[in-house]
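Q&A log
Question type: sequence-to-structure
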Amino acid sequence: MDLFKTPTSAGPDIGGKKKHTTIPKSMKQITIILVIAILFIRCTNSQTNTRQLTGDIRTDIKNLFRNGNHMADIMDGVKQNPRQAALTIKFQEGIMKNYEWFVDYMKTIPEGKPMPYNSKLGMTKAEYDELTGYLNDIEIVSTGRENIKAELNGDTMYFKTQGKLSNYNSLKIDLKDNVVLFGQFKMVFADTSNIKDDKNGLRSKWKGYTWRFEKPNNFNFDDLKDPGNFKMKQYKFTVGRLDKNGKTFMSLKGREIEDGAKVVDFELPVIF
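Response status: OK
Response body:
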C-alpha cells in the first residue's frame, strides 16, 4: 500500500487513450519519491510455514482461484489518525525542500534496509521514529465489497467484475508460460513471497507469488535529479493465501510516470 499519494488520474492504456491529469510542479517531486519507495525500499521476509501452498504455481493458481463467483473485500483503506497524517505531510515537505540531497541519500541505503534518520528529512528524530513506527505497523482495511468471477479456460485464468475492480477484466494469468498479461503489458514471474509473521498490513502470515513489468529495467538514481524528464512504467500482480483464515489475497498495481507526473496510478488489493 502506497502511503504518499498525490492526486492523479487512474486507468491504464488498454485499447484506448490514456487519461492525463496535470499535477502542479511542486507535487512532481513527491511523485518521484513514490518511485523510490516502490522500487527500492522493499523489506524482505522469509517464512518456514509452507503448508497451504504446494510451490507449484500452476497447481496453486488453480486452487487459489476456483471457477465461479467470489465476494471480495476491497482492501484499499489505511488506518490513519490525524497525528500520523500530519507527520506524513511534514516528511513530504522536508524531502521537497532537500530533494537533490534526498536522491543522493537514497543511493547510500542498501535494498531492503530502513532509511536512517537525517535532520534534512525535515523532522526531529523523535518525529521520524514515530512516523516509521506507524509505517511498520500499517493495517489495511476493507472499503467495500464486489463480486469477482474467476474462470479457467485451458491454461488461462480470466476474471470478470465491475465497478472499482473493473481493471481485473483485462487481466489474464497464462499458466502455460507463467506470465500475467494486462492489456499490452506482459508481467514476468518475479518472486515467491514467504512472509514469516503477521506484522504487515494484512495482519497474517502468507505465501504467494508476484509477477512484474518494469520499464526501464535498469534504474539509475541519477535520473531522479531531473524529475521533469523522468519516465517509468511499472505493473505488478501479487497473489497468495493468508495463513490466518485460508483466504486468497491478490493485488493488481499499475503506475506510469511521464515527465515527472503520474498519469496512471492504481492499486486494487482484494481478499476473498
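Response note: The two ends are 18 Å apart (CA to CA).
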